[in-house]
Amino acid sequence: MINTLDDESVQRILVVMAHPDDVDFGAAGTVAGWTDRGTEVVYLMVTDGDAGGFDDGITRAEMAALRREEQIAAAKCVGVSDVRWLGYPDGRVEATLDLRRDIARVIRQVRPDRVLMPSPERNYERIYPSHPDHRAVGAAALDAVYPDARNPYAFPELLAGEGLDAWTAREVWLTGGPVANHYVDITDRFDRKLNALRAHASQTAHMGDGLPEMLRGWLSANAAAAGLPEGRLAESFQVIDTA
User: Fold this and answer.
1) Percent helix / strand / coil, the chain, rounded to 5
2) Measured between alpha carbons, how far is residue 12 from residues 20, 71, 171 in Å?
3) What are the TM regions of this chain, as residue ranges (predicted)?
4) Is residue 27 part of a domain?
5) Would you place residue 54 in the very low, low, confident or very high pLDDT band (cuts 50, 70, 90)?
């Protein structure tokens, strides 16, 4: 286990994810706890999720619009109202300098104490969190935290052209990776996590009553790894000090 920032000292948190629904699968219960404490949370979605879904009768442009609506609704379930988009193509994300700059821009705009993002490492125990878009976004976002956002000479156009001063995010939380050193008990917020995921109907409606059972399986395993009592549910993270 690792010592994390005192939540009382955390005023703003930026969540950077590849697709709509990524944050809800990985961290919606934790986000609900943050917003309940009055912490400002901002979502940044790198893609619109246009390559997702199961309906051949809908165009990819229609799917992108639908998934934006679903993510906004899901965010409201856990107390988040500020959802931003970069519009990169779903399934083709790479950790480019352009993506690093675009994420660094939002870090400087939001000025978060903590940034939550996907792990850039592949998880061989559970392959699904290791979608290439997730790993690319994690790599770019971590580079945007260090060194890009804090270095006034990195992407000088952000300062000279947009007036965005350098900013140091003090902590990074990674989700979906092979290493976990921090767990959050979300038992009392499980229903809000479930509601957030059900808001992504284009992705989860086919799971029906199997969705809560699947979630409880994952979250119970996390709770056991954290040494929590039987019946508790937890989300897992790798926390990195980036101060």
Assistant:
1) 45, 20, 35
2) 21, 20, 11
3) none
4) yes
5) confident
Nearest to 75 by CA among 132, 135, 27: 27
Contact assessment for residue 176 and residue 141, using Cβ atoms and an 8 Å cutoff: no
Establish if 1 belongs to a structural domain: no
Q: Is residue 129 part of a domain?
A: yes
For residue 188, tell me if it sits in a domain. Answer: yes
Alpha helices in 78-149 (DSSP H): 97-110, 132-143
When divided into structural domains, the chain yields a total of 1
Dihedrals phi, psi of 212, to nearest 5 degrees: -60, -35
In DSSP notation, 21-44 reads THHHHHHHHHHHHHHHTT-EEEEE
Q: Work out whether the CA dihedral 88, 89, 90, 94 comes out positive or negative.
A: negative
25 or 125, greater pLDDT: 25
Identify the domain containing residue 40 by its residue range: 7-241
pLDDT of residue 3: 87
Q: Which two tokens stand for residue 32?
A: 């609900």
Question: What is the residue-averaged pLDDT of the chain?
Answer: 96
Amino acid identity of residue 83, one-letter, is V
